[in-house]
Write a structure and sequence with these properties.
- The complex is a heterodimer of chains A (256) and B (325).
- With 256 residues, chain A is an alpha/beta fold.
- Chain A has ten helices and ten strands.
- In chain A, helix 3 packs parallel to helix 6 and helix 5 crosses helix 6.
- Chain A is globular, with a radius of gyration of 19 Å.
- Chain B is an all-alpha fold.
- Chain B contains 14 helices and two strands; from the N terminus they run H-H-H-H-H-H-E-E-H-H-H-H-H-H-H-H.
- In chain B, a hairpin with a 3-residue loop joins strand 1 and strand 2.
- The longest helix of chain B is centred in the first third of the chain and has 27 residues.
- The relative contact order of chain B is 0.16.
- Classes of the chains: A alpha/beta (256), B mainly alpha (325).
Chain lengths: 256, 325
C-alpha cells in the first residue's frame, strides 16, 4: 500500500515551474531517494509535501487521505517529519533539551496537570527525557547531551537534526541532504543510521547528492530534472539510464 | 531528607516575605515594594511572549490599563472588589486574545509596531470616551477592597500592609503559574519557537496557538496587576496606558534577564527602587539612571541574573591566567 502519493504535483514561482506534474509514490518501509542536478526541484518537492509550500496544482495523499493544503504542524501530527537542507537546530538549548522538544507530539498532559504538577505529568516528563536519551544513544551522540546545540561541530549538528526528528515519532521521515558537508567517515555513519532507522519501521525519503549513499541504500530512485521526473527505478537501472547520465550522473558513473 | 530541608527553606522564605511589613521600614519603602510587586507581575507576564516566545511586545501596557479601568468602573458601579478583580483579568484576557489573534500573524518588527499601535489606540479611546472613563480627569475615589465574612472577619484595605499582602499574593500566584508553564511541554514549545520557528513547526508545534497562549496568559496577569494598582492608588487616569510604563517594563525585563524566571522579578524591584532612591541626586537623577543602564547593558547583556555566573567565570579566568604555581 502506498504510504505517500502525489498526483500531478506542480509548483510555479511566477512563471518558473519548479516542480511540474510530478507523480510520485512511496511504500511503507521503503527507502526512496530523490536525485537530480541543482535546481531540479528536489527541495521544492520536499517543501510541498511537508506543507511549507502550497502547490499550484496537483494533490498529495497520505494513507489515502488528501493532505494537499495542510500546514507543517498538521502533517507532523500525521507522522510526516522532515529535516532541512540548511541545518536547523535549536541553537541556544542543550542537545538533550532540543531532542526533548522534538517529542512535543508524543505527550499530551492536561493544562491542570501541568499547573498542579501531578504525578502523571511528572511521569510523562521522565518518559520523554528517557526517550530522548535513548535516541541520542541510538545515534551515538549521547556524550554530547549537555552541550549547547550551536557549539556542536557541523556533522554532529546534522545528526542532532535527525535526533530531533526521530523524537517526534515519524512514520515517514524526509531527510534533505543529510550527508552534505560531511567527511567520508561521517557519511558512512549516516548511511548506517538510515538503515537502522528503516529497521525501526520508519519509511525514509531522501534527497542526496552523494551517490555512494544513494546507490547503496535506496530501494528505488526517482530522478528529477528541471522539475520533471525523467527516470525512476532500481539503483542499477538508474545507473545505466542514458538520460540520467546525460542530465546528472556524468560518464564516470557508467564504470563505477 | 533533602526534600524536607528544601521545603523548610521555602517555608522560611515565605515567612520572611510575610513579615516584611513588620520590619523597621517606613511607609515610603513599603509603597515602593508594593509598586515593585505589581511591576514584577507585569514583567513576568511580558517575559512569556518576549522572553520565551521571542516576540517583542510593546502592547502589554494596554492590558494593565484595561484591567485597571475594568476593576475601577465595576467597583464604582457597586460591584465587590473581588468580583471586579477577576473580571479585570478576564476582560484583559479577552483583549489579549483579540489583539494577539491579529498581531501574532506577524513577526519581528511588524509585531512590535502593531502591538504599540494597539496600546496607543486604547490610550486615545480612554482619553476621549469621557462619558465612560472621565477622559483626562480620570476616575477617582475608587473603593478600597474589603473582606467581609459575617461574625468572623471584617477588613477594609485601608492600610499599605493590606495592599502589600494583596500584591504579594498576586505575585506569588503569577510566579507559580509561570514557573509551572515554563517547565512543561508548553514552555518547551515556546522556547522552540524562539529558537527556530520552522523547525518547531516541522515537529508539530502550532506556533501561532502557542504564541497566542503566552500572550493571553500574560494579558490576564497584567490585567490583574492593573486592578490591584487602581484600588491601591484609588485614582487612575489615561496614564495607565502610557508608553513610559512600556519602557519601564522593557528595562526591567532586559536588565533583569529575559527568558529566565527570577530575572524579571529582580529587574522589577531594582528598577522600581533605583529611580526613587536616585532622587537624592535631584537634577542629575535621570542622567545617572541612564549611565547605569548603559554600563549594565555593556557588562551584563544577559541581565542581572547572569551576574554571579559572570563573576565566577571572571575569577576562574584570572586564576588560570596568573596561575597558582
Amino acid at each position: 500500500m502506498a504510504l505517500l502519493e502525489t498526483k500531478k504535483l506542480t509548483k510555479y514561482f511566477g512563471g518558473l515551474g519548479a516542480v511540474k506534474d510530478v507523480d510520485f509514490l512511496i511504500n511503507r518501509r521503503e527507502i526512496v531517494s530523490l536525485i537530480g542536478p541543482n535546481g531540479a526541484g528536489k527541495t521544492t518537492f520536499f517543501n510541498l509535501i511537508t506543507g511549507f509550500f502550497r502547490p499550484t496544482k496537483g494533490k498529495i495523499f497520505y494513507k489515502e487521505e488528501d493532505i494537499t493544503n495542510l500546514k507543517p504542524h498538521q502533517l507532523a501530527v500525521r507522522g510526516i517529519i522532515r529535516t532541512f537542507q540548511k541545518t536547523k537546530v535549536f541553537p541556544g538549548v542543550t542537545v538533550l533539551e532540543g531532542v526533548i522538544m522534538g517529542s512535543h507530539l508524543t505527550i499530551n498532559p492536561h493544562i491542570l496537570g501541568i499547573l498542579s504538577n501531578t504525578a502523571a505529568t511528572r511521569k510523562e516528563e521522565e518518559k520523554v527525557r528517557q526517550k530522548a536519551l535513548d535516541i541520542l544513544n541510538f545515534l551515538g551522540i549521547e556524550y554530547r547531551k549537555d552541550i549547547l546545540a550551536k557549539n556542536l561541530p557541523y556533522g554532529e549538528q546534522r545528526i542532532l537534526e535527525i535526533a530531533v526528528a526521530l523524537a517526534a515519532d515519524p512514520e515517514l521521515l524526509l531527510l534533505d541532504e543529510p550527508a552534505t558537508g560531511m567527511n567520508p567517515e561521517e557519511t558512512k555513519r549516516v548511511t548506517k543510521l538510515i538503515y537502522k532507522i528503516r529497521e525501526k519501521g520508519i519509511t525514509v525519503l531522501l534527497v542526496e547528492h552523494d551517490m555512494n549513499v544513494v546507490m547503496g541504500i535506496s530501494d528505488s530512485i526517482v530522478v528529477l530534472d528541471s522539475g520533471e521526473v525523467i527516470a525512476r527505478g532500481l539503483p542499477q537501472e538508474i545507473r545505466e539510464n542514458k538520460e540520467v547520465i546525460k542530465a546528472y550522473l556524468g560518464e564516470e558513473y557508467t564504470h563505477a | 531528607m533533602k526534600k524536607r530541608f528544601s521545603y523548610f527553606r521555602w517555608f522560611l522564605f515565605l515567612f520572611f516575605l510575610l513579615s516584611v511589613p513588620f520590619l523597621p521600614i517606613g511607609n515610603y519603602q513599603l509603597h515602593i515594594i508594593i509598586i515593585g510587586c505589581i511591576y514584577a507581575v507585569m514583567v513576568l507576564s511580558l517575559n512569556l511572549i518576549t522572553g520565551y516566545v521571542g516576540e517583542l511586545s510593546l502592547g502589554n501596557v494596554a492590558f494593565f490599563g484595561v484591567g485597571a479601568f475594568t476593576s475601577a468602573l465595576l467597583t464604582l458601579g457597586g460591584v465587590s472588589f473581588w468580583v471586579s478583580f477577576l473580571a479585570a483579568g478576564m476582560v484583559a484576557g479577552i483583549f489579549g486574545s483579540l489583539i494577539g489573534y491579529i498581531t501574532l500573524k506577524l513577526r519581528g518588527a511588524y509585531f512590535v509596531i502593531v502591538t504599540l499601535a494597539f496600546a496607543e489606540i486604547l490610550r486615545l479611546i480612554d482619553t476621549n470616551w469621557t462619558s465612560l472613563t472621565n477622559g483626562p480627569m480620570g476616575l477617582s475615589n475608587i473603593p478600597l477592597p474589603e473582606i467581609h465574612i459575617p461574625y468572623l472577619l471584617n477588613i477594609t484595605f485601608s492600610d499599605k500592609i493590606h495592599f502589600y499582602y494583596l500584591s504579594l499574593g498576586l505575585l506569588l500566584l503569577a510566579l507559580y503559574v509561570v514557573y509551572r508553564l515554563v517547565n512543561s511541554r508548553i514552555g518547551r514549545a515556546w522556547v522552540s519557537i524562539r529558537e527556530n520557528e520552522d523547525l518547531a513547526k516541522s515537529i508539530g508545534i502550532n506556533a501561532f496557538n502557542y504564541a497566542l497562549l503566552a500572550f493571553v496568559v500574560g494579558a490576564i496577569f497584567t490585567g490583574l496587576g492593573g486592578s490591584v494598582y487602581a484600588h491601591y492608588m484609588s485614582f487612575i487616569g489615561p496614564d495607565v496606558f502610557s508608553f513610559s510604563i512600556t519602557v519601564s517594563m522593557l528595562i526591567m525585563l532586559i536588565m533583569g534577564g529575559k527568558g529566565t524566571i527570577i530575572g524579571p522579578i529582580i529587574g522589577a524591584f531594582v528598577f522600581t527602587a533605583l529611580p526613587e532612591y536616585l532622587r537624592i541626586a535631584q537634577l542629575y537623577r535621570l542622567s545617572i539612571l541612564g549611565i547605569i543602564l548603559i554600563f549594565a547593558v555593556i557588562f551584563l547583556p544577559a541581565g542581572i541574573v547572569s551576574m554571579p555566573k559572570r563573576i565566577i567565570s571572571f575569577i576562574k579566568e584570572r586564576r588560570r591566567q596568573f596561575g597558582t604555581s
